[in-house]
Amino acid sequence: MEELRRFLPRGRLQDLIDALRAAGHRVVGPVPRDGAIVYDEIRSVDELPRGWRETQAPGSYRIERSGGDACFDVVNGPGSLKRFFFAPREELLQIEIADGSFRAQETLPEAAPTAYLGVRACDLAALAVQDRVFLEDRYPDAHYAARRRGAFLVAVQCTRSAATCFCASLDTGPEARAGFDLALTEQDDGFVARAGSEAGRQILGALDLSPADPERTRAEREALDACAAGMQRALDTSDLPDLLYENLDHARWDDVAERCLSCGNCTMVCPTCFCHDVRDEPSPDGLRSLRVREWDSCFDRDHGQVHGKNFRPETRHRYRQWLVHKVASWIDQFGTSGCVGCGRCITWCPTGIDLTEEVAAIRDLPKERGR
What we know:
The protein is built from twelve helices and 16 strands.
């Protein structure tokens, strides 16, 4: 039986933030800053993007005042949850030389329990993919695990989509169905709320809210369905990954290479990309060293450099590697697609390259055009 939904009046959203903080969590939520919506620590509802709305298109993003009172009338910005768990830069080891030998000590992060407010369904799906990569293989990543523990996730259901969203075609949104502790659906005067975990039930119980009436739950379902039906983009996965495997020499790779800057923006904003570089940073006296991990990108030319050879010397090779891995070989490797349909790679590509368009073009163009 589906859990009873509660109604959180708009004026009591601060009570939710206060309850999360009282439970020992720092609270991170979306805030407007530097012309975008980004995640940062918040203490007050006044820091949320109330009355803001964003407009997205291939290679275009802007936020502007909407004149409304909604706190979450924005879809995703350039940032996701990824940086909070898979840090852009972090120390892995400290190595010291002494007495003719050396000592290596792992440096694990001290991660405070954190509640993430305003998480979208696509980012919950992306977090599940990252968990699969970093936690569920034979050798779990201790640094990721340390940050992932204690995370409390408050989802906000999407009742509008950006022009670059396509999560509905991947069944990763707009409705968050799992992976959250609390889920909120914003309405004119408040939020329909439900718990997805025991921790979420405790927070919801502490707020002592009234049940959401049938009219509210019906309006919630209609809004979610309308959001899914109104998406302007879709990714047809019916013949993936075979479609890409059978077209590795297709002429479309040359076509996209003429537009791609190989800048790596798509991999930086992608909530699932996990390429990284590990290097040692020795001290000037040579007695100690730090082993550091940093985000990297398969679009970086040096990423394909091995001794004496670069095995991805051209942009077409690098774009092909990214797209084929993202929606084809990732499935073979991890049992799931690496794409969750958030559309960030389309929005934040300087030339507006659209992966849904590229896959469709490979499907529709004759194979004889390939090389």
